[in-house]
Amino acid sequence: MTPNPSGDQTLRSWLLLMLLSLIWGSSFILIKKGLVVFSAGEVGAYRIVSAALVLLPLSLPRLKKLNKKQVGNLIVAGLVGSFIPAFLFAKAQTQLSSSITGVLNALTPLFVVIIGALFFGSKITGRNSLGLIIAFIGVVILISVKEGSSFSGFADINGYAFFVILATLCYGINLNIIKHWFVALKPVEITAISLLLVLPVALLYLMAGTDFSMKVVHEEGALLAVGYLTILGVLGTAIALIIFNGLVKIATPVFASMVTYLIPIVAIAWGVIDGEVLLPGHYIGIVAVILGVWIGNRKKKQKTVTES
Questions:
Q1: How many Cα atoms sit within 13 Å of 305 on the Cβ side?
Q2: Which of 22, 34, 88, 292 has the maximum number of C-beta atoms within 10 A of its C-beta?
Q3: Is residue 1 assigned to a domain?
Q4: Is residue 90 part of a domain?
Q5: 84-88, 164-168, 246-250, 284-288: lowest mean pLDDT where?
Q6: For residues 234 and 248, which has the higher predicted lDDT (pLDDT)?
């Protein structure tokens, strides 16, 4: 009996999607564990350093082949795609739960649409607009819910949610930049080299601008926290990138984008396991955000023409 390549490929696609969702969905609980010992700046910087170092075998050989314009563009990509979001997510989670942060991260596809329309000539459809409105309502609910009431209004909004929103805006800018500026480079090369280019700044800040080294030596639980952050950088950035590109290669971009909807589920599960409390209003906001992202990111099905 001959094997079914199509069936095997479908199974492999689903396995990679589940693995990627688990890795990226776990990023927020790992940030939370790192923040037990280290500051937001230290968490962000170490995440960049660990990811960039593990990708050196990919980035260093390819760096010599780039021209000055490509290097400049990759520095921009490194800043908005990795460096700035790493600090923003860490800062946000000093006052936000990992589960809520994971849900807000799902806004990335909508910002891809908005930035594309504003600066890169893409069009916003009616479906995009509806998704944006629903997701916005969900975000307002999520960042306004307080203990003792389901929805407390704008007066009690948690401002730290805007760090996450700004990070997803950066991701939206970065994905448009990758699409329009780097036609000749593969996504793995873009990420590896862009991380290499921002590595010196992150390393200098970590070693000279923080007490990271002292904490590693003297703080109780520091080595465990470093372990969590190493997993975050190596697995959550470097390895996840390779998995994602492998998934896009054997499946479709639309199928790969499903990870956007699965990440919040994993983040919420980790948060609940870790003792985070979700109020009824949170669940309403979560559903609205995911529903809005799904509607806004959904492609219109094209009719297939059958040959006679």
A1: 1
A2: 34
A3: no
A4: yes
A5: 246-250
A6: 234
Going by C-alpha positions, the residue among 52, 40, 106, 57 that lies closest to residue 78 is 52
Cα angle 65, 66, 70; round to 5: 165
Token code pair at residue 7: 């069936």
Query: Domain tally for the chain?
Result: 1
Report the alpha-carbon distance of residue 59 to residue 188 in Å, rounded.
9
Structural domain that includes position 139: 27-297
DSSP 8-state secondary structure symbol assigned to residue 166: H
- Top-confidence residue, 82 or 5: 82
Q: How far apart (Å, rounded) are the C-alpha atoms in residues 86 and 34?
A: 13
Q: What are phi and psi of 149, to 5 degrees?
A: -150, 150
What is 5-67 written as a DSSP string?
Answer: HHHHHHHHHHHHHHHHHHHHHTHHHHHHHHTTTS-HHHHHHHHHHHHHHHTHHHHHHHHTT--
pLDDT of residue 226: 97
Q: Is residue 200 part of a domain?
A: yes
Decide if 86 contacts 92 (C-beta within 8 A). no
Q: Is the pLDDT of residue 16 over 70?
A: yes
Nearest to residue 291, comparing CAs of 131, 82, 139?
A: 131
Residue 10 maps to a domain: no
What's the angle, vertex CA 88, arms to CA 84 and CA 93, rounded to 5? 155
